[in-house]
Amino acid sequence: AKQKGRDHFQFYVASIDQEIRDRKQLEKDLSQALTLQQFHLVYQPQINLETKRIIGAEALLRWEHPVRGLVPPDYFIPVAENNGSIVEIGQWVLEQACLQAKLWADKGLPLRIAVNLSAVQLRQDRIVDDILGTLKRHNIPAGRLELEVTETSFMTNLSDAVAKLHTLNRAGISIAVDDFGTGYSSLTYLKKMPVQHLKIDKQFIRDLLVNEEDTQIANTIIDLGKSLNLSVIAEGVETAEQEYYLSQRGCTLAQGYFFSRPLRPADFETFVQGFHQK
Ligand code: C2E
Ligand code: CA
Ligand code: CA
Ligand code: CA
Questions:
Q1: What is the spatial distance between Cα 181 and Cα 140, in angstroms, rounded to a whole number?
Q2: Cα 64 to chain center, whole Å?
Q3: Which of 5, 95, 105, 179 is the 20 to 30 Å CA partner of 61?
Q4: Ligand lying closest to the C-alpha of residue 95
Q5: Cα first-last separation, the chain
Q6: What is the pTM of this model?
Q7: Which of 202, 208, 238, 264 maximizes ligand 1 atoms within 8 Å of its Cβ, making it the mutation to test the pocket?
């Protein structure tokens, strides 16, 4: 038994060792991904349930690794946040989204693009200048950009985050609180924040109408949005039942596989044409 225990122990050490090497390799690959042009963006339509119009798109980052294939952002974004490379990657995302917004506007599709802004990016001193400068360089009206920030962005330095978001918002950029309800939800920051949208996290939408608690949480966020005069967008809408419930309940905006998966630009354009013809 002792012998077996020891083998197990060695196996355990070996696997941790392997994990550390894997992670080091991933970090190394990630640091070259921009240069090697392994990133691209996909766009998921955001729909107004009342007017049945597409109001914009969320830009989502994809990393096509030559060996691993598509690496999920939930896996590599935290790594990029940890080693700081999210600052450079996030700037690339913004540039790319602006280029796309310009292309679409020129084609008669003046869509608003929502870009995810990491808490690490928001902490940078230069972030406000970087964002406003990028819009200006690409000749994009600020109203064409939405920033999705999570509640963790407000945790380290609330007043700093408030000040920066205020400047961005005054310039015309709209702000959405992403993953609302999953983190540090405080009504105090909502009062202080220049926020226009609350995004109900998909974990509450998945079992909507099946799980009583999730349904109540979604209801509460919708009501909170109404009373604070913020529009509420549901993410992860996958079924007609969810869409029907949300629109009846007063949630006017939605995004999810029920409408469309995140798409490459050309497919997105085809989707928009088909959707608006329905
Ligand atoms: P998120 O911002 O909460 O994005 C929503 C995620 O839900 C996306 O996953 C999207 O593809 C997925 N999704 C959309 N509709 C549905 C649906 O109907 N059902 C289900 N099950 N999922 C749906 P994705 O693209 O894998 O991104 C995961 C997370 O990675 C994002 O969560 C965001 O936190 C982060 N991320 C993605 N792109 C960027 C980026 O450019 N910058 C930063 N900082 N983070 C990003
Ligand atoms: Ca998001
Ligand atoms: Ca989410
Ligand atoms: Ca998220």
A1: 31
A2: 18
A3: 105
A4: 1
A5: 68
A6: 0.94
A7: 202
Ligand whose nearest atom lies closest to the CA of 181: 3
Ligand 1 binding pocket includes 235 (Cβ within 6 Å): yes
Closest CA to 253 of 42, 58, 43, 50: 50
Distance between CA 241 and CA 230 in Å, rounded? 24
Closest CA to 118 of 53, 159, 74: 74
- Quote the ipTM score: 0.98
Residues 173-216 pLDDT 10s? 999 999 998 877 677 778 888 999 999 999 999 999 999 999 99
Question: What distance in Å separates the CA atoms of residue 5 and residue 1, rounded to the nearest whole number?
Answer: 6
Tens of pLDDT, residue by residue over 52-94, are 999 999 999 999 999 999 999 999 999 999 999 999 999 999 9
